[in-house]
């Protein structure tokens, strides 16, 4: 009887303590994931109904259905999201540019959701079109943005060129552009995607040819959290699968939010030439090659003259 009680106690211990992880990650069990979001349309934002929207929301909602997650979106300013992630008040923060400095503060997924870069915007009549044009100017920028500090941030370029400028930090990209639109600042730094999505709202502003820091936008997680290995594994699995074309979902989301164009405007405009230029060049090249052949090979020239 004593031996029976011993084995029974051992069995109960194994079920209760060793079996818990298996149950918590098992099929049919819903996991709640707290996700920090902020307004950075069209990548992520809060719509008029207070719901999360944008490319990141599409991707997370898709993954949540596949993994049986319940996603709780926690809305706030960019700085608030970073603070909540550091404190462990949220599990994941979306749309975070990966950098070596940030990797010391947070854990990151390995797969990149989107690639972006910073663009400097000015008023249409502004002569600024290079770093040297920023001398003694006021530059509005998102506080704690990767485009402000760190490697290839605006501050590093200003120091390298010996340029004096005043940085005006604000809490949102909307405010960054508004400061230039209202004349409070002379130049604004925003992500390529944000500028692309909001250019119609700021008809008095234009994108310059000044580009900053190509970035890999990923998911960031609280440093060292016990669930990170699981979350990173599942997020990476689905992001990679979606970017490889699974169900066409990723491409459809980009199309929905007008993000198919992913190359700098300056590079794209460089190839916008009149329709007659290409045929003209081809014709001129053909004539040059034929003339060269005639001179190079006399027999061919003689045959042509006889004909």
Description of the structure:
This protein is α/β, with parallel strands linked by helices. The chain has helices spanning about 1-20, 20-25, 55-65, 80-85, 100-105, 155-160, 175-180, 190-200, 230-245, 250-255, 265-270, 275-295, 300-305, and strands at about 30-35, 45, 50-55, 70-75, 90-95, 105-110, 115-125, 140, 165-170, 185-190, 205-220. The protein has two domains: about 25-115 and about 215-255, D-Maltodextrin-Binding Protein, domain 2 (3-Layer(aba) Sandwich), CATH 3.40.190; about 115-215, Periplasmic binding protein-like II (D-Maltodextrin-Binding Protein, domain 2), CATH 3.40.190.10. The chain is built from 13 helices and eleven strands. The strands form two sheets. Strands 1, 4, 5, 6, 7, 8, 9, 10 and 11 form a nine-stranded mixed sheet that branches. Strand 2 and strand 3 (about 50-55) form a beta hairpin. Helix 12 (about 275-295) crosses helix 13. The model is unreliable at about 15-25, about 260-280 and about 300-305 (pLDDT under 50).
Summarize the structure.
This protein folds into two domains: 24-115 and 216-256, Periplasmic binding protein-like II (D-Maltodextrin-Binding Protein, domain 2, 3-Layer(aba) Sandwich); 116-215, D-Maltodextrin-Binding Protein, domain 2, CATH 3.40.190.
């Amino acid at each position: 009887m004593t031996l029976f009680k011993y084995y029974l106690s051992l069995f109960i211990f194994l079920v209760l303590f060793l079996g818990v992880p298996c149950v918590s990650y098992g099929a049919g069990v819903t996991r709640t994931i707290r996700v920090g979001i902020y307004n950075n349309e069209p990548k992520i934002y809060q719509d008029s109904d207070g719901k999360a929207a944008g490319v990141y929301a599409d991707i997370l909602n898709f993954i949540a259905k596949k993994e049986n997650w319940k996603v709780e979106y926690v809305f706030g300013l960019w700085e608030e999201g970073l603070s909540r992630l550091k404190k462990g008040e949220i599990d994941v923060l979306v749309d975070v540019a990966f950098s070596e400095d940030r990797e010391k503060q947070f854990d990151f997924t390995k797969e990149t959701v989107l690639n972006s870069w910073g663009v400097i915007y000015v008023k249409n009549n502004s002569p600024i079109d290079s770093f040297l044009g920023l001398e003694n100017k006021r530059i509005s920028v998102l506080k704690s943005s990767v485009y402000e500090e760190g490697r290839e941030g605006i501050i590093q370029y200003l120091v390298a060129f010996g340029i004096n400028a005043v940085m005006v930090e604000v809490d949102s990209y909307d405010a960054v552009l508004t400061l230039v639109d209202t004349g409070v600042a002379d130049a604004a730094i925003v992500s390529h995607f944000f500028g692309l999505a909001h250019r119609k709202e700021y008809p008095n502003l234009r994108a310059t040819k000044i580009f900053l820091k190509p970035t890999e936008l990923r998911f960031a997680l609280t440093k060292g959290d016990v669930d990170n290995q699981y979350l990173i594994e599942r997020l990476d699995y689905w992001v990679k699968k979606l970017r490889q074309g699974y169900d066409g979902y990723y491409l459809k989301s980009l199309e929905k939010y007008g993000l198919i164009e992913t190359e700098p405007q300056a590079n794209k405009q460089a190839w916008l030439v009149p329709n007659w230029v290409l045929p003209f060049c081809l014709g001129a090249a053909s004539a040059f090659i034929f003339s060269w052949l005639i001179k190079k090979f006399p027999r061919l020239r003689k045959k042509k003259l006889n004909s």
